[in-house]
Amino acid sequence: DxxxxxxxxxxxxLSGTYRKDVENLKRTYEEFKDLGCTILSPTNxxxxxxxxxxxxxxxxxxxxxxxxxxxxxxAIQKANFVWLHAPDGYVGPTAxxxxxxxxAVGVPVFAQQLPKDKILQSFVRLADSPSAMLRMWPRxxxxxxxALKAFQEYYKRAALQRGYGNEGPKECLLLMVEEVGExxxxxRKR
Length: 190
Hints:
The chain is α/β, with parallel strands linked by helices and 190 residues long. Helices cover 45% and strands 15% of the residues.
């Protein structure tokens, strides 16, 4: 198993159905926390109510579904990866949106069970457990689909992972120029 000492620092979002197999969802949430991961969203797995299929967690009771989902999508942009809770392959429309959104911003999606939907399956990587996922999770994030905001989020994640979280614009430009120089040297040698 991956211990907290050997696990890479990770920020995750749990997506999927919060109505089915809640006990397994709670175990997964706790396992990620025990592995040293920061769960950006949801902030807890204490289901308070369900209205028209939308599940409210403790502390969200007075918020609108749009506000909660907006915060969840913002968290996906900041996450290293998304863990999809899809018991028996079930993925509802909101979770399908989140999987597509994660793919669009270059955030990988992992799940213990693949979605039943064949199209969604192509966007999800299978992992036996959170600790197995951490063993297969790459140290460096994959570049996202081309888009300025997605590139900015990718750069922010990559910079933080490499220890460059406090640099200003000038330092970031100089670091980028250094990287381009290294690339140019490598290309020239070939």
